[in-house]
Structures are given as structure tokens and as C-alpha cells.
Write a structure and sequence with these properties.
single chain, about 230 residues, alpha/beta, Rossmann fold, five-stranded parallel β-sheet, four-stranded antiparallel β-sheet, about 25% strand, globular
Length: about 230
């Protein structure tokens, strides 16, 4: 990292908005991501945001080549644990936090308040972005991702495992009451390659799991190909 670049952390879900926001910051603002921050369940098994297994997030960090910090939290103590992570980052010289929110104002309000209290500058590079423009940029810059969660109220189980590509985008546009980027919780994604990845994530697809409201696609990581000791 050059002397002119500032250290940042990226609020990391493992999905497309986190990846695209990281890409925009690294490309356009002349900064480099120093850490990925991922909040996980209190039992330490999966991500709070997208439900991805912790080993999947670690494999992403290994493929990108940056350390990931994973903090356990309940929904009740989420903010407190998040602030502890930011305090640790501050001690390490991190000045900027990057977030992938598009237009949910209450999320932005929370991010700005928590970062201000932690003396870290928040950046939301996708904020108020036009959905088709964001999705096209994600596809055209070379990111690779699949759907790993679907809200069955909006999308059927056949969407699980679909690649994020032009065909996906065209098919999604044919549906009514669907946010192209899934901002209403229609779907979540797993990014396995992209312009700042040093190598693709090596994974296999497991079983589909269903609740009354959602469908989940299991992602299995080959631990022999991804070092999982990169927690900071």
C-alpha cells in the first residue's frame, strides 16, 4: 500500500454490493482495502447478513488476498460488537469504512452515526445508484456470482444457483415488483471471482435448504485450496 493511500475496511457480506462498492473505492478513490469486516452469528457458524458459512467468507478473503475480521454478535449486541471492531481498526490506522447500501435510509443513518462515534469516515459509493446501471457494471467489470438465498415470496427455488449475468438480468426485468439488485430482500448472492480477486474461490454446490419463506443454497469450500487462517 502506497503512502498516499488510506487504509480502509469494507463491511463484507460476501455479495455483489459489498464487492462492487469495494471495487469502486479501490479504483476511483485511490485507496486500498485493508480489511474485510464480517459480522457472524453468536455461534460463529454463518454470516449475519447473507447466511453464508464462515468458511465461505474466509475463502473469499483468501482469494482476494486481504485479511477478514469476523465478529460474533446477536442482534441485540450487534452494534456494540461492530463498534469494538471499528475501535480495533482505528488503532491499526484505518480511516475509512466502505458500505454497499443503495437507498435504505435507516441503514445509512446507522452507518453514519456508528462511524462518526468511532471517528471513521463512512463511504457509500453505490448510494442512489440506478439499479440496472449497478448490475450492468457488476457484470461488465468481470465479477462472478451466484444466487445463494431467495425469498420465496418473490422468486422460486429454480433461481438458486443462477449466475449473475445478462440473461439473469433480462429474466429478472420480466418479473413485476422485483428490485433488480434485491434491495427488498428478494435474493442474496455469493461472489466467487472478480477484478480484485487474486484467484477464484474454489467451491462446490451442496444441497438446497428451505424454510417457509426462504430457499438457501449450500456452498462447500475446499479447505485444501484456501488457507483459513487469515483472521486479523
Amino acid at each position: 500500500m502506497s503512502q498516499n493511500n488510506k487504509k480502509v475496511f469494507v463491511s463484507w457480506s460476501g455479495g455483489k454490493e459489498a464487492s462492487l462498492s469495494c471495487y469502486r473505492v479501490m479504483k476511483n478513490l485511490n485507496v486500498e482495502s485493508a480489511y474485510l469486516l464480517n459480522m457472524v452469528s453468536e455461534d460463529g457458524t454463518h454470516s449475519r447478513s447473507h447466511g453464508l458459512g464462515v468458511e465461505v467468507l474466509k475463502a473469499q478473503a483468501d482469494a482476494i488476498g486481504v485479511p477478514i475480521v469476523q465478529k460474533r454478535a446477536t442482534w441485540g449486541d450487534y452494534e456494540g460488537e461492530f463498534k469494538k471492531a471499528l475501535a480495533d481498526f482505528k488503532k491499526k490506522g484505518v480511516e475509512i469504512g466502505v458500505f454497499g447500501d443503495i437507498d435504505v435510509q435507516e441503514h445509512r443513518d446507522w452507518v453514519e452515526r456508528v462511524c462518526e462515534e468511532s471517528e471513521i469516515k463512512p463511504l457509500l459509493p453505490l448510494w442512489q445508484g440506478e439499479r440496472s446501471v449497478l448490475l450492468e457494471e457488476f457484470i461488465n467489470t468481470g465479477f462472478k456470482a451466484i444466487l445463494v438465498v431467495v425469498n420465496l415470496q418473490f422468486l422460486g427455488e429454480e433461481w438458486l444457483g443462477r449466475e449473475i449475468n445478462k440473461e439473469f438480468m433480462d429474466d429478472l426485468k420480466k418479473l413485476s415488483n422485483i428490485d433488480l439488485c434485491g434491495e427488498k430482500g428478494e435474493y442474496h448472492t455469493f461472489v466467487y471471482d472478480g477484478p480484485f480477486f487474486k484467484k477464484p474461490v474454489s467451491f462446490t454446490i451442496g444441497k438446497k435448504i428451505f424454510t417457509k419463506t426462504h430457499g438457501f443454497l449450500e456452498i462447500r469450500i475446499d479447505s485444501r485450496l484456501h488457507g483459513n487462517d487469515n483472521n486479523a
